[in-house]
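Quick one, T. Sequence first:
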Amino acid sequence: MIVRDASPVDRAAVRRVHEEAFGRSGEATLAEALEPVVSLVAIDGDRGVVGHVLLAEASLDGVHPILTLGPLAVRPAAQGEGAGSGLVQVAVERARATAYPAIVLLGEPAFYGRLGFSSAEPMGIACPFDDVPADAWQALQLPAWAPDVRGTVVYPAPWAEV
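Structure tokens:
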């Protein structure tokens, strides 16, 4: 499995990955609408693109720029083979080299926990959504983290469509 930067030629394959993984088009449309800071694909030999993840900019209360991870998608036939973990690991490596202080996400605690993410609330990062289980609201501090990085996440406009 190879993880590399997504390119314009991957666009149709990335859309298919999201549609297959989520069983709908919302996340695929979101992935196309967001302006990525990082956009990665997982390539598996003859199967081609089997996964995609992106990091996009958001903010805390419109003051502190941060990164959001998502959507992350892996084709159902390739799930459990390491593509998702590989994508997140490379995305985090790339994020560590930026001036952003944190990455936030909504996701499965067991999966993201083993990749270094933990509950965002104790870090002072509040979720903007009312119906999210507390353990699914997660964050990862990056090298640029500082104690004053606190607030409620303000997602980019395309997130409102999902």
